[in-house]
Model the fold of this input.
Amino acid sequence: MKYMSTRDHATTVNFEDALFQGLAPDGGLYSPASFPTLDNNFLDRMEQLSLHKAGEAIMTTFLQEIPSSQLQTIITNALNFPIPLTHLENNLYLLEVFHGPTLAFKDIGARFMANTVAYLATEQHKKIKIVVATSGDTGSAIANAFFQMPNIDVYILYPSNKISRLQEQQITTFGGNVHALEVAGTFDDCQRLVKTALADDTLRRDCIMTTANSINIARLLPQMIYHAWGLIQLKQMGINDAPILSIPSGNLGNLTSAVFAKSIGFSIQHFIAATNINSVFADYLQSSTFKPQTSRRSLANAMDVGDPSNFERLIDRYGNDYEKMCRDISGTSISDEEIILEIKSTYQKHGYILDPHTAVGVAAARKSGITNEPIIITATAHPGKFPEVITKAIHLDIPLPPQLELLINKPKLSEEISIDYTDFYTKLSKRT
Ligand SMILES: *Cc1c(COP(=O)(O)O)cnc(C)c1O
Done:
């Protein structure tokens, strides 16, 4: 399988190069150059598969460069937690992708990428540096996934005073090969510093440097696995209708990977892109104009994205055909008030506590008015990560999940840097 830039379909690279470059030299994003369809035999028998077997079948088609026994190990190590589909009510199902170590779905892409990099690193004789900007959940998933991996250093940039205390604890308490850099600026400043570093060839003289943001194809591809696993579990429940997927969306990685899964043959009837008040993509689907905005704070803060990076991959997948995209995807924007109401009413009806991001997906599924077809909502985070919102919605103090409880008393190990690139450059060029 070859990978092409969204801006230049003629030049292709292999998976390893796409992974280690992160962004294509022309500024585009790497996407698979073709989408082989899984054979019908496989699709007809898929309810007999385990999560890991389904994962292998999907990833083999995209990663032929990695021997299949290695790929098996990578998948087993990366997905070492359950991803259950639970029935919420009537036609609504929740795919709980938040049972990994940092309690959000980003563990899946992060752990797959880390295990793949670790495998490829044994063939490289250079040190590997991973740089990533985070507004919260990405940083913790990456830190956790890469912690203590030999020959790999991770640099996580986060905006000072703009992430929650719990999120900061999840990034800054590792030490070792995980370098937490507290930037005196905004998330956009962090992202700009990362992009500047990636474009700086002087840093690449004696090391390999790439990013672990969702622009990296190695994070996106494995997300197809959980979408497929949701479909498999639905069949195992005896439901054979092709479902609609309601997907809480920010940078659109979750949605793009679902569209990829459909491209290789999985039966998905339609997608609902569920956004918070940052409705750039939902607005695009309504108006056909894409107008990036500065992001606004919402209760579903991991989706506060005003210029979603995977938009470029998504339109490319639909051949820049707006009508074609609209036949497949609808967009719905959900306000903070609706998030609170959804958490409250779902709890009252079923005793199930939704996290604010999943609440966006559930509210959008209800707004669609579809009641006669199954809808799978990606449940992207554990409610225990957002105690303030849950208390506000249902007046309940939920206990801190054990994974987070462990971090509470650990010392913060971050270094402060300014928004000046030379500061970041100094940290990066230091031999570690
Ligand atoms: C990152 C994130 C999202 C949004 O996913 P994208 O792939 O950026 O669209 C949704 N929910 C949670 C909890 C997240 O951390």
